[in-house]
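Appendix B. Chain record.
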Amino acid sequence: VKLTEFGGRLVQVGDSLRLSCITSDIIFYLYGMGWFRLAPGKEREFVAGINRAGDRTVITDSARGRFSISRDNNANTVYLQMNNLKVEDTAVYYCASDYAVGRDGVPTNADDYDHWGQGTQVTVSS
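Structure tokens predicted for this chain:
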């Protein structure tokens, strides 16, 4: 299983950015997907998650109303759309997969995810 994130870069406060996570060697529609982030000096944080069908999403409180998650099961890709970015959104963003056969929830705990990408850096400058 391979997960590869794309799209991280340096942006300004208020800008928008879309991250992509392309998966391979995975039966994509069997997996829920999540985005986490890790900022310097902080613990890894759940950002957003989506179920297998793509009809259920969870967004962390600090990003609700600004971020959204979506998936394209034909393209084996999950997206994180980030709008109105803030300096505190600066972090390395990771996507992760959750083998979810028999379940339809969206886990928010990193321990529930079984594969991870290498991360992509998002820096929001004021």
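Further analysis of this model is presented in Appendix C.
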